[in-house]
Amino acid sequence: MFQNYIKIAWRSLIKNRLHTVINIAGLSTGLTVTLLISLWVRDELTFDRQHPNYQNIAQVMINTQQNGILETSKTVAAPLAEALRSNYRDAFKSVVLARQAGDHLLHYEDKTLRATGKFVEKEGTNILPLQILNGKRDGLIKPNSIMLSQEMSQAIFGETDPIGKTLKVDDNMLVSVTGVYKDLPNNSTFKEVKYLIPWSLLAAVDKNYSKLEKSWEFNWFEIFIELNPQISMSSVSKEIKDLQKNILKDNTPLSTYSPSLFLHPMEKWHLYGDWKDGKNTGGLITFVWLFSIIGFFVLLLAAVNFINLSTAKAQKRAKEVGIRKAIGSNRKQLMLQFFCESVLTTFLSYLLALALAYFSLPFFNDLSVKSLYIPYTDLNFLLISIGFVLLIGLLSGAYPALLLSSFNAINTLRGLFSTSKKMVTPRQVLVVIQFTIATILSIGTIIIFQQIQHAKNRQLGYNQKDLISFRMSNFNGRNEAFRNNLLQTGVLSDVAQTTSPATDNWSNASGFFWEGKNSTFKDNFSLVAVSPDYGKTLEWKMMAGRDFSKDFVSDSSSVILNESAIRYMGIKEPIGKTIRWKDETFSDASYTIIGVVKDLVSQSPYEPVYQTIYFMQPAANFLLARLKPGINTQDALTKIKTVFNKYAPDEAFEFSFVKDDFTQKFSFEERVGKLALILTLLTLLISCMGIFGLVTFMAEQRKKEIGIRKVLGANIQSLTQLLSFEFVKLVIISTLIAIPFAWWLTNKWLENFSLKITISWWTFAYTSLAILLVALFTISFQTVKTALANPADSLRNE
Amino acid sequence: MIQLSNIFKWYNVGGNRSFVLKDINLTINEGEFVSIMGPSGSGKSTLLHILGLLDEPNEGSYLFQEQEVLHLKEKQRSTLYKEHIGFVFQAYHLIDELTVYENIETPLIYKNLKGSERKAIVADLIDRFGIVGKKDLFPAQLSGGQQQLVGIARALATTPKLLLADEPTGNLNSKQGEEIMELFKQLNQEDGVTIIQVTHSEKNAEYGSRIIELLDGQVVK
Ligand SMILES: Nc1ncnc2c1ncn2[C@@H]1O[C@H](COP(=O)(O)OP(=O)(O)O)[C@@H](O)[C@H]1O
Ligand SMILES: [Mg+2]
């Protein structure tokens, strides 16, 4: 019985070849998109779920009052860990203080590697989702120990057993390997942590740390907690709220920040990472929703095609329905047959979609920066797939099945059957839905790219061309010699040192005073310490005053401010004015403003430039060098490396082009843009396949009418117009519906950016026009063919 | 077997009732072979469709084997039809996508017969109709007469008590027509199948035991 339905369904698919091809092509495209998006969503939703106790783990976060705004921070002061431990003994199984993951150099024999790792207290090994491959789980008990990821162990020791081997970390930390853990998965917040070092080692080797550990002033550290079983996360989160405020009392200046603490559960770290006014405002979860909705809509579009084409074919199939009824089929059996056809089509499309997904995964992974795979052998995946195919097959087959099986046997056999008006309307509605979505996506994509371009066109305030950047150590007074050596290679036109890379700001500070500053104003500046050649090397633009110079001994207490800083401070005539920096722990000094520089875009290209103070000091983390124009890059880099190795024999020379670093800042938006572009093209493709199918069947239905019109003297142009108008009308209606939606959505998206384009009406006009042309082009194949057809043929066939 | 009383059938054409059947009263007994004749448009097909439960009259009563069949639910009607009635069309109406074998098999599938039973029945019919060599061909590969044989074989597959045929020989040449009529006669006499056929040919009508003449929706003889 069932076999029979499948057989008939199969034959019917073969017989209506064009129809089947359009159907399967459209549906498999939709299914591929849905499949890829599902894999992505699944990956996002399983973020940080590796730890068996993930529901009991949280990070301690802090809200502080800054100039009337609640700022939320993941980093807190170190003494808080001890305070939490002693005040809430019952609640916490462990409280772990950690330093943010950072880069360090690992030396073993003649090897040196720069890698990202984390300093954590010994119980940190229970908080990170570690799978121990070799050695001990609690490997951080002794201060001089290190635990390595498998990748790290492989890179340093190859196949030899690393346990007990001694490494040197940076200049002065000797540690011995106590454990190796499986590389943390991509969907873990800790994925970049390649090694763990006990926190206690920090204080042992760095005297600053023993100071920091006791200071409430520096919110520089992370605290992770694991709750005891049966303790409620939300109630503990409320209980600890005022702990820090109560400890600090009202009299210290720090309490004016009115710190309030709370717990951010591990399962929310990844998807709910945005904060505003001390409240969580979501985060990546928006994208999970967005893509789920898009995936749903793409699938909907494909299903709509299926429904549209099946009902359009109704007339052709009416006779078959009549015969089947006349030889004893009841309605249920007929519906079953049509369902078999739709499920079979869906099944074939799904197989094709699996293949398409398989081949597009590398590209998709690249785009989404993930390592997704299709879990073919996973039983759940197979079950879900089968359920999904059935569901889509049944849903998209339902309307055609109901419609086709309802035909009256006698009328259809008599040939009295004709497509009634009531069948046309739903199909038109469906086409309108398709094109509305396609138009919204098209406009959205164009706006995304316009916004990215807008940010890229921004005046940077310096010249990125041929500028390279690499990390360097502080060569204890030999910096000037290093610079001269580099210049002697003849490949560089200038060289400068700085504490922050050209495309970021690494240091911020408060506690500045200047003439006219309001005493309640809580200031904050970016600080960059640079060598005197910095401005020349970057080619920044002085707006007032002068650049730093070696010739002025006093320049060690001079500063240059950017224009934003001048506006922020509200100083008139800044040159020659004095600012004072008084900071509780480290400094109390006065500086003279000698120059104002045009804003350098170093952080987000979408945000206004932050108020920045440039100091002339020998401290350095980075070296910026401009290659002479037209020089062979490879050759130049070899020469630079030779000099670098002379000064830092055991450091790795890792350089980057500033332009590339800057381009990185667009990568997220560009990825979103590319993804949107692909989805837009697919949506358009599916929609066009839809109208192509429809126009094919419409042409068939109106063959006789066209024949008669031709006999009556209609010309080809007027006939093509007649046939096209139906669809043009629908596309225009879609555009009118889509534009307000697109307007609203794109404006909403642009709210994320401080510097943004103003949306212009022609974007909408041109996009709509383009879509109309694409639609016209699609249907023209069929309309022209029909209009050209010999009327004698079409009339005889009737 | 069949009793029609006061059957009316009309269509609303431009607000007016246009009658197709007017007050039809008719009794047909089991084992009869009836021919319906009349000019084109007189309502013959309509009457046949009503008899075959494919269409419903607007008024009147229809007793099929002493059971009132009008206003039955679609499912009951379908069951009744599947059990007792076979239909043969002038235009054969075979399913183009199916082979000869499968066309004949289809009503049995709808009757939920097992595969082995179906096989036996279809093989038997194919044998009897002498179309063994054609069983894997598709309708388009057959001549009109052959197609009609398949159509009849299909109608007979469910061993109906009542065979309805609407101008079964209308598209055939006279020799093919005669063969079909012989077949009907044989079915009627040897298997006791009640047959009602619509025909334009006096000669074919003579094969039956009774002739009913329709004119403008009324029985005139
Ligand atoms: N759906 C319909 N709407 C209006 N009139 C119809 C319809 N179906 C059949 N008729 C009319 O009913 C009459 C009888 O048709 P039919 O039973 O096919 O006649 P016959 O088979 O005797 O040629 C015809 O005049 C035809 O026009
Ligand atoms: Mg007729």
Automatic annotation (TrEMBL), chain A:
Pfam hit, one: MacB_PCD
Localisation per UniProt entry: Cell membrane
Keyword Metal-binding: no
GO cellular component labels: plasma membrane
Transmembrane parts of this sequence: 21-41, 287-309, 334-361, 381-407, 428-449, 675-699, 727-746, 758-779
Name of the molecule in the record: MacB-like core domain-containing protein
Native organism: Olivibacter domesticus (Pseudosphingobacterium domesticum)
Superkingdom per UniProt: Bacteria
UniProt KW Cell membrane keyword: yes
GO MF entries: transmembrane transporter activity
Occurrences of domain MacB-like periplasmic core (ranges): 20-242, 437-642
ABC3 transporter permease C-terminal domain boundaries: 293-408, 678-783
Assigned keywords, A-Z: Cell membrane, Membrane, Transmembrane, Transmembrane helix
Xref: InterPro entries: ABC3_permease_C, MacB_PCD, Macrolide_Exporter_MacB
UniProtKB/TrEMBL annotation, chain B:
Keyword DNA damage among record annotations: no
GO molecular function terms listed in the Swiss-Prot or TrEMBL record: ATP binding; ATP hydrolysis activity; transmembrane transporter activity
Domain ABC transporter: 2-220
Domain of life: Bacteria
Pfam families membership: ABC_tran (PF00005)
Keywords from the UniProt entry: ATP-binding, Lipoprotein, Nucleotide-binding, Transport
SUPFAM superfamilies, per database record: P-loop containing nucleoside triphosphate hydrolases
InterPro entries documented for this protein: AAA+_ATPase, ABC_transporter-like_ATP-bd, ABC_transporter-like_CS, ABC_transpr_LolD-like, MacB-like_ATP-bd, P-loop_NTPase
GO CC annotations on file: membrane protein complex; plasma membrane
Family statement drawn from the similarity comment of this UniProt entry: Belongs to the ABC transporter superfamily. Macrolide exporter (TC 3.A.1.122) family.
Record-given protein name: ABC-type lipoprotein export system, ATPase component
Source organism phylogeny: Bacteria, Pseudomonadati, Bacteroidota, Sphingobacteriia, Sphingobacteriales
